[in-house]
Design a protein that fits this description.
By secondary structure, the chain is mainly β. It has 3 helices and 9 strands. Strands 2, 3, 4, 5 and 6 form a 5-stranded antiparallel sheet that branches. A two-stranded antiparallel sheet has the order 1-7.
Length: 135
Amino acid sequence: MKIDLRKLYGLKSLLIDESIKIPQELYTKMNVRSMSEVLVKGSISVNYENNIDLDLNLSGNFIMPCSITFEDVKVPFNCNVQSEILENELNDDFYLDLLDILWENIVLEIPFNVIKEGAEIKCLQGEGWELKRED
């Protein structure tokens, strides 16, 4: 998601309501099988120090494997991004690419494991092993 800095500095504020697609190579490393487009809503503005303030809401869905059955589980996420980007941190004079900032916040929403509703461990023993519950 690229923001035209000339337009942003000219208007001083932009309202955002877009869907973006996260590259597959980012989320497959995180045990996510697939990911819906991410809805990005909010505002981007230039503050009195000419730094850029982000106030965004991100929402979407992950598809992850169930830790018991390995079946697909849909996991919704919703997070807020409030950040300030310093003017001297901008790498490009014309565009601000928000993908890295958005991904850093989305990755915090990925659970370590998920269990599908109603999933049960059916096999409690095998050759040379047995699963016991400690009370």
